[in-house]
Each structure stands twice: as C-alpha cells, then as structure tokens.
Amino acid sequence: MKWRVAQSHRSKALRPQWRVSKYRLLSWAQILPERSNGGASVVRKTVWPLFPYAVATAMIAALTFLCWIFQPLFQPINTSLLYILPVLVSALWYGFGPSVYAACLSVLVFDYYFVPPIYSITVSDLRYLISFCVFLAVGAVTAILASSLKRQAQRATQRESMAAFLLSVSRQMAEADDLPTMMTQVARHTASTLAMPASIVLPDATGRLGLVYGHQLSNPPTGIVDDILTWVYHHQRPATFGEKSHPELMYLPLLTEHQTYGVLCLGVYGQNLRFSDESMRLAQAVASLTAVAVARWQLQEQAKLAHLSAESERLRTALLDSISHELRTPLTTILGASSSLLESQDVLGSAAQAELLQTLRDSAVRMNRLIHNLLSMVRIESGMVSLHTDPCDLSEIVGMALHQLKDTLKNRPITVHIPDDAIVKGDEGWLQQVVVNLLSNAAKYSPPASPIDVVGERRDECVRLHIKDLGEGIAASEQNRVFDKFYRSANVSHIPGTGLGLAICKSIIQAHHGTISTHSNAPHGTIVTVELPAHETVTAEEVIWVTKS
Amino acid sequence: MGHKILIIDDEESIRTLLRVTLRTQGYETAEADSGNAGIACAAQWVPDLIILDLGLPDADHFNVLDQLRQWSNVPIIVLTVHDREQEKVWALDHGADDYVTKPFGVNELQARVRASLRRAHQDPSTPILQVGALTIDLTRRIVERDSHTLKLTPIEYELLRVLTLNAGRVVTQRQLLQQVWGEHVDEDSSHYLRIYVGRLRKKVEPDPSKPQLILTEPGVGYRLTEP
Fold first, then answer.
1. Residue limits of the Histidine kinase domain (chain A) (predicted)?
2. pLDDT, tens digit (0-9, with 9 covering 90-100), for B113-169
C-alpha cells in the first residue's frame, strides 16, 4: 500500500502521516490497572511549560520580602523553617521538578540574605552547611512524597472515571436490542467522553467495510481513509495519523481472540485535537469492549438462525410423517380393496363386495379431504387466496357443510340454532370449509352418537358461531397451540389426523378479520367459537327502496 | 374351520379390508384397535396368527411385540411402511415372523399369511426340503439342483440351510450372521454376508444376475422364495 507523506519542516516523528501503531492491543480488563502519567484526556498544546517555576520563584521572592521586613522578630533558624513552605506548595501543585527547584532556590536565597556574611554566598559558620544539606534533603523527600501522592490521586480518579465509562458503555451494549442502535450509542458515548468524533465501521453483507455508525469519517489530506480502514481490518493492527506520540486520528481494529469484527475510528483532522496517553488507552478499551459486544451479537444471531432452522426441520418431519401416514392409509385400503375385488370376485359374497366398495369410497373421500386441506394450506401460505367477500347467511353456510358431511354425521343428533340476522361478510366457499373442518373435528374427537350443537348469535357488529361437542376436551395449556400447523394434542394421538384442519380454519378466519378460539364445554367437551364481522342488516324499507329503483 | 387371525390396527378402513379379504379365504378373524386390546384378545381368543400394524400411536406396537413374545410363539406379521428399514429390522429381531409393506396387494399378504402358518405347523424333523429345483437333504448334508449335486463350502451350506428352514420368510442380516457364524459377530461384518450370498447365488441360481431363489430385502435381510 502506498501512503502519501506530507512535506513538512518538522522532524520525522512530528510529521503528520499514517503509521502503524506500536501499541499492543490489550483487553479492557488488562487496561484498568495500567500506570498512567496523567494529563487531560485531550492534550492541547501547553503554552506555559515554565509557569510552575515562575510561581515557585514568585513565592520565594514574596517570602524573602516578608522575612526581610520582619527580620528583627525572627531568628535565622525560624526563617529557615519558613522556607519549607514554597517547597511544599510547589510539590503539591506542580510535582517533583518545581519543588526541587524551589528547594535549591530557597537555600541560595536564605544563604544570601540571612546567613552572615549577608549579601554573600559565602558562609562563615560551617555548621550552616549541614543545615543546608538537611534542608535540601527535607525538600527533596517532601517533593517526592507529595508528587507521588498527587500522582496516585490522579491515577485513582482516572481509573475511576475509566471504569465508570466502560461500565456505562457495557450497560448500553447490554440494553440495546439491535446492532445499529448499539453501535450508534457506543460511538456517541465514546465521542462525548473523549471530546472527539468517533465512529464504528463494520463490514456489510458483502464483506466490504460499508456500515458506518456514529460520526462521518474525518478525511485527512494525506491519507486514503478507505484503504487504511481495510488495512487495519485485515492486518488486525491499529493505525494512527499525526504525531507519533499524540496522534490526531486513531483507527483501532475491533479484535477478539479469533476474529476482527470491524474498525473503531477516532479523532478529527485539522482541529489541533490530539490524543493523550490516557485517551488512547480508553480508546483501546472501547475497541475491545465493542469487539466482544459485536461477537456476542453475531453469536446470538447465529443461535437464533440455528433455532429457526431446527424448528423448520421439526415442522418438515412432522409434515412428512403425518402426510405419509394420512395418504398411505387410504391408499392401502383402496389398493387392497380394489385388487381383492378384481382377483377374488368369484369367492366374495355380495355382502363382502358391498363392504369393500364402501371402504373404497370412504378412503377416497378421506384422501380427497386431506388433499383439499393440503392444497388450501399451500394456497393460503403462498398468498394465492383471493376472497370474494359477499354478504352470506350463516345458516346457509352451516346447511351446506352439514350436507357435505352427511355420511360422517349419519348417526349424530345435531341441533342447529342460528338467528336470521346472522349475516356475515365473507367468502362462502372458504367459510364453508371452516365449518366443515370444525364439524368433522367435533365428530372425530367425541364419542360416536354423542350430540353436536351448532349455535349462532348476533352481537352488535359481529356474528358468532359456536360448535359444541361432548368429547375429551382440550387442555387449557393447549387451547392456543391446537391452531399451530401440525400440532396434535398428545391425548388424541390414537385418532388419525394431520394437525392441519384448525390451522387452516385460523388462517381463513384471520383473512376475514375475525377470530377463532376454543373453550371448555364443562363438564366435558369443547366449544369452538368463530367471530366474524357482521354485514350491516338491511331494513325492510331499504329492501323495498332497492326493489323500486 | 380355518385358522384364527387377530388383526391389531388403529385404522378402521384397513381392519375392514383385512377382515373381508381374509374371511373370503376361509380364515376366522378378530379385531383390536389398540395394543392393549390386542394383547387381551390374544390371551383369550388364542389366535393362530397375528397381524400387527407398526403405525400404532404412542409406540404401542413396540410394547405389544415384546409383551406377546414373552408368553406366546404365535406367528406375527407386521404391517409397516416402505421407508422404515430400521423399524422392520427391529420388529424382525424382536420376534416378528415377517412384514408386509403398505400399500400391499391382498395376494401378497395372503401368501405371507400362508407361509407363516405353514412354517408354524411344519414338522421340524422333516429331513428333506424342496425349494423350486433345489433339494436339500439335511441329514446327509447334500444339496442337489436338477439331480446334480452341488459343491458347497461349510459356510455356504449353513447359509442355505438357515434360509431354507425359514423359506418364504425374511431373515435379517443379524439373524443370519448369528446363526451361521455364531453369537459373537460384529455388526459391521454384513459385507461378508453379501460376499457369501453372492457366491451361494452363483451355485444355486439358474441366472445369478437375476436372482429368483434368494431375494434381497434392501436394508433388512434375505428371503428364500417359497417352495
């Protein structure tokens, strides 16, 4: 890869250019206890590096002035102790360098103004030299202690703020439901903490780094951002732009042990905003945290997919089992009965022949119903159903269904109560299939010759149809599941069936903007209730008016 | 009166079909629509043969087969479907005598019923067996085809003997391996079986490429055609 390098008068290390960062990538747990040298999160160019020394000098000058004025009040030994003060103050405020400087300056000034001979560096009493040494030693030790105390305090504050930041980022990650939200939030949060633009770039479906969350990428004049992105992504190493130790832009790979998931891009070009050591570490922590989050999210997606495909696999097996059994049984009967009729005609009595013919027809009817249901299911699922909604009379639909099932319901006492105003908007053919399925279910799952009640009722805007049987009933836990495709209750597994009938009913009723539900017909049995939107009742005058016009 | 046959099947249409066709053949039939009813009926009515559907719900048929075999040697023919080889092998290894695949022709079923009944009532001491053009003399260990004595190795002879004793009935690969090679055979050695059956076919079949005597039941075992 070719990187253009800007012409610059500055030294090589200061020249803005893309370079591969030497930073070892640490996991975020490792980063917390690292030593930190402090500084604000972003280094603005410091204008006054000598300011602490000036302050120390000023303090000593002021002290000397005061001591000079009140000299008659103090012994030299008291004065010397007072000179400890600027040393302590410099150590607390500015650290080691200024405090040592203050100690040396104090010794010199004290010697010059207060130790005889006055106005001279020379010392007449040699014991003063020992005092000076002790003073210097005390100053140095104080400086070391104070500055290390200050460093520790600073480090603790930084550590605390970093931990708090990482905690809040990881909480956001845990709360987000989808990847784009999560990534955008993390980028925004990182940007506000570092006071720098931040963006996260992830590969899209084609594997190209095309999904950008957060800010737009800052494009320096000397780099081709896309190429750098790709390089960082593939080589799994961070790249920085700008000065070596305080870069302007940082591109960090989102890296876990096994894989790179994307790139975290931080910084802005041309605003004189640079990274401090601390913010670089923070950036790394965010990068590895984000990588873990993306990895977790991807694994979750994979798990979901696996679950889905297992579910569809289960459905397919159920479909195959149920259909092969449901098709084979009538087929076996048809083949067996017809071959028997053909081959053993002379042996079969007329009663036996009639019986075989009857089973032949029953099996054909059963197969026809199965194929009809299967085709309906396919048509409903593929959205090929077109409903011809007309006003239709519920009692007429029930009548047609009863006629269609007259063989199945031969020995059943069936009561039908449907009011005249039970008129629904719907497709007659499909609604008839619903009633046929419900009635044949009622017959199938209740004792032979037990009664079946069909009750219709008109409620303001809707029409309800209840079909009640005295069968085994449906357990409360299964009231909803029986409408699932291929679901069959365990306690009816001895009765052949596909588990398609109610699923088809539900699809048809939903297409009519209605509802279907099952309830217990206490003490035993089931009530299936279908609720459909009613057709506005036509009053007698309207009918006359329509006829006249 | 003919033999008594018990039909255990949960599908009414299939029970009807079997009842009508078997009765026209002079058999007496009884029906049960669940495994438990079937066992009770088998104990009281003492049938000569049982037809058991392997499509009974709740894996009932597994219990039925095991329970029946605990106290009865009655021949059992299972009804199964085409693509369930494991189920067939399981049933045969657990004491079923034969199986019929749905959908079946009535003639096929009747042939299986006849073969099973005959085997159950045959005299076990019959020393000479006749299968098609083959004559097998069990006392003298001689196999003849069209009056020519065939030279068979001991293993080939054993294979033929086991198949002949079960003529008309399927013998699973495991049953063959156990009876010919002994109890401790590896389940994976079925390819030896294939090799030996191939050699045996070359000696006994008129046209080994189109076997007529020793038929392969794919995934299950072998069957010697009925005499």
1. 322-536
2. 988 888 877 766 667 777 777 888 888 888 888 888 888 888 888 888 888 888 788
Count of domains forming chain B: 2
At A124-175, the pLDDT tens digits run: 778 888 888 888 888 888 888 887 888 888 888 888 888 888 888 888 888 8
CA distances from B4 to A149, A208, B45, B74, B149 (A): 104, 76, 9, 11, 41
Q: How far is B23 from chain A (nearest CA, A)?
A: 9
State whether B79 and B31 are in the same domain: yes
CB-based contact, A333 to chain B, within 8 Å? yes
**% of chain A beyond a pLDDT of 70:** 88
Q: Do the Cβ atoms of A355 and B16 come within 8 Å?
A: yes
Domain boundary among B81, B97, B121: B121
Q: Residue A33: is its pLDDT beyond 60?
A: no
Encode pLDDT of B17-56 as tens digits. Answer: 899 988 888 899 999 888 888 888 988 988 999 999 887 7
Report the residue of chain A nearest B13, measured CA to CA. A359
Q: What is the mean pLDDT of residues A397-425?
A: 87
Asked whether residue B82 falls in the same domain as residue B138, the answer is: no
Interface test with A, best of B7, B14, B53 (most A CBs within 10 A): B14
Q: What is the mean pLDDT of chain A?
A: 80
Same domain as B202, residue B185: yes
Contact B107 A339 (CB under 8 A): yes
CB contact under 8 A, B105 and A339: yes
CB contact under 8 A, B81 and A337: no
Residue in B16, B103, B104 closest to A359 by CB: B16
Looking at the complex, does the CB of residue B102 fall below 8 Å from at least one CB of chain A?
yes
Q: Cβ of B110 under 8 Å from any chain A Cβ?
A: no
Of A20, A17, A21, residue with least CA distance to A4: A17
Which ipTM was obtained for this model?
Answer: 0.71
Assess whether B107 and B180 both reside in one domain.
no
Tell me, yes or no, whether B186 and B206 share the same domain: yes
Domain assignment of residue B116, given as a range? 4-121
Quote the CA–CA distance of B212 and A538 in Å, as a whole number: 78
Q: Identify the CATH number of the domain in which residue B20 sits.
A: 3.40.50.2300
B168: left (phi over 0), alpha (psi -120 to 50) or beta: left
Mean pLDDT of A21-49: 47
Chain segment B62-87, per-residue pLDDT in tens: 778 888 888 888 999 998 876 777 88
Rounded to the nearest angstrom, the minimum Cα separation between A329 and chain B is: 7
Q: Tell me the shortest Cα–Cα distance from B11 to chain A, in angstroms.
A: 8
- CB-based contact A221:A233 (threshold 8 Å): no
Residue A449 · residue A411 · CB < 8 Å: yes
Write the pLDDT tens digit of every residue in A291-307.
Answer: 888 888 888 889 999 98
Kindly determine whether residue A340 and residue B10, on different chains, have CB atoms separated by under 8 Å: no
Q: Is A492 within 8 Å of chain B by CB?
A: no
- Kindly state which CATH superfamily the domain A388-540 is placed in: Histidine kinase-like ATPase, C-terminal domain (3.30.565.10)
The verdict on B176 and B113 lying in the same domain is: no
Q: Do B94 and B133 belong together in one domain?
A: no
A363 in reach of chain B (CB within 8 A): yes
* Residue A438 phi, psi (nearest 5): -70, -40
CB contact under 8 A, B21 and A329: no
CA–CA gap between residue A484 and residue A326 (Å, rounded): 18
B101 interfacial to chain A (CB closer than 8 Å): no
* Nearest Cα residue to A322 out of A479, A486, A211: A486
* Four-residue CA torsion sign, A182, A187, A190, A191: negative
Same domain as B188, residue B117: no
Tokens of A195: 């006071």
- What mean pLDDT is reported for chain B? 84
Yes or no, beta carbons of A332 and B57 under 8 Å apart: no
Q: Which residue of A has its CA nearest to B108?
A: A336
Q: For chain A, say whether B57 makes contact (Cβ under 8 Å).
A: yes
